[in-house]
Amino acid sequence: MKQDPQNKGVNEHSKDKQLDEFRLDNSGKKLTTNQGVKVSEDEHSLKAGSRGPTLMEDFHFREKMTHFDHERIPERVVHARGFGAHGYFQVYESMEEYTRAKFLQDPSVKTPVFVRFSTVAGSRGSADSVRDARGFATKFYTEEGNYDLVGNNIPVFFIQDAIKFPDLVHSFKPEPHNEMPQASTAHDTFWDFAANNTESAHMIMWTMSDRAIPRSFRMMEGFGVHTFRFVNEQGKSRFVKFHWKPVLGTHSLVFDEAQKLAGKDPDFHRRDLWEAIEMGDYPEFELGVQMIDEEDEFSFDFDILDPTKLWPEEMVPVKIIGKMTLNRNQDNVFAETEQAAFHPGHVVPGIDFSNDPLLQGRLFSYTDTQLIRLGGPNFHELPINRPVCPFHNNQYDGYNRMTINTGPVAYHKNSLQNNDPSPATEEEGGYVHFQEKVEGRKVRQRSDSFKDHYSQAKMFWNSMSEVEKQHMIEAFRFEVGKVQNKDVQQQVVDMFSNVDAFLAEQIALGVGAKVPDAANESQVTLSSPALSQMNTAKSPKTRKIAILADNGFNYAEVNKVMEALKAAGITPEIVSKNLGMIKGDGGELEVKKTFLTSHSVMYDAVYVPGGKESIEALKKVPQAKEFVSEAFKHFKTIAVGGEGAELLPADAMKSLGEEGAQSKTFSKMGIVASRSEDDSSSFSENLINTIAQHRHWERVI
What we know:
- It is a single chain.
- The chain has helices spanning 15-20, 59-69, 165-172, 188-196, 201-207, 255-264, 268-278, 334-338, 357-373, 455-463, 466-481, 486-496, 501-511, 555-567, 612-619, 622-633, 650-662, 680-692, and strands at 82-91, 111-119, 134-142, 145-152, 222-223, 228-231, 237-246, 284-293, 319-329, 351-353, 544-548, 571-576, 580-584, 587-591, 593-594, 605-608, 637-641, 665-668, 671-674.
- It is an alpha+beta fold.
- The relative contact order is 0.10.
- Residues 1-10 have low confidence and may be disordered.
- The chain folds into 3 domains: 82-381, Catalase HpII,  Chain A, domain 1; 466-522, Hemocyanin, N-terminal domain (Up-down Bundle), CATH 1.20.1370; 544-700, Class I glutamine amidotransferase (GATase) domain (Rossmann fold, 3-Layer(aba) Sandwich).
């Protein structure tokens, strides 16, 4: 199923219609220069004789080569590796009580959006599956102007003040003396920064968790990170934090799987997003808000403006207010994803800022960076950034100006043009900043309320399941184990002894550091169940399952199971030794991938159907056995029919036990087995339900 152009769902200010003006289809067209002159030859430059020198008068060669030489723009310093998609947003009910923002008022209006997902640390050529925070930036093309919700998949950040952002980024980027390592914080300078800037403790707990290796862009949460304001028509302000909740739930890779995917398919996440939209499996995210009344600003044991703190959902519930659907892939990655310019300062009436010092710095930095990346102040005129509503001001000229302004006036106030364009009143939709009373001496210091660096880091640890805690320990051991400086390793261990003594002890044992005294361990007992991915939604939809088969497979069994899988929204793919058709006892199926072009890490589950001839052939292929073994090691669902059980690794057979080996149908520890074709319905049902669980951590025990 292809993406559905009829389901684009945009309002009368259609972004898609606007983009139509800029789309260019070269099909059936004659080649021309950029000036429109038809070109008769595009393989040979103009020369003085067939073996003579190239002539500088060859204007076509010069234009073509000049354009090529200038095709690239500077990549983003952070979030360089990105991928985007178009869609729309609809609010569920009017939010008039809380905000005057028009796109949050009418449930019948579909507001166009463009979303850019990204990794943070790596360059544009790095892998998708690295351990890292992920960017989740959304541009709403509203009738009042563009609103950018520029967030991450982690609700907190490393630092509390924007002046430290260059230092943070310099620390996690490749070390300048040898430009290594790429897209990784597993090196000395990052952990040296962390140990000497302990406000990073909470964010590091998140990046060492499974949240930093998401299964898919479609299966990760998004957060606005900062505290913003909602302001309603009466001028009442509420502090607000934004959340994106994926309808499919929040799920992750395991680290070994993430590392292998970086080599097997470095485009794993962007490919997953592209293919899901092409197949009509449109990613959906619900927008939620946490709100705190102005008078309750100081009612918590943390500062609500501190970007290294979250608001526990159990204290401040998330109100779900609408849903975003991504239903169209981009036409050109450079023109859209690369040229998309986001900025947290792009707001609409009804949304305002708080005094979060990290947010305040971003309000300067984002515009500044677009000026160098996109060649000047007119980046808002690029098609992907252009508002769907009209814009009028006296800011003329500059690099890449596309608007042709008429008339003699380019200033305010004026009489020659009746003072147009004139400011709009608040009643006419003019943006009016919330009139917060501000007073104080000019000082370079941070509020004492920002000094607690460990309480919420401990809360995060308390909220994790035992499996998630073990994954974090292994992540710390990997990252800190890559640090060469022993003193830095010890500093990190000592730092996290302030969070949890057991965690610090386990890091120390793993990296050969001294186990610190537990005296400074945080005594926080609070936990937040919402932070554990064990409590997320679980669905089989859009999951991928590899079916390993060869000639002689049980066609009737496979056919029935594939029908059931597709009906449940699961995509099956036949994997075998060679591409082409394989024959079963009653029919044949097309092989989509081979053992050379695919791997277990690219699928959510593996199914080995019965058929003696097929299984005997697969047993002679080492990659087939490895395929199943890897799936078992990565806690994925494994299904076997009849003789297919012979491909199970010894550990899997041990997990099934004697009961499983003898039963006609059996499901245990993520392994679904069937001995009889007559049981295909219950087998399929068990398989679908087991795939929905994502992982089977009981194998750890």
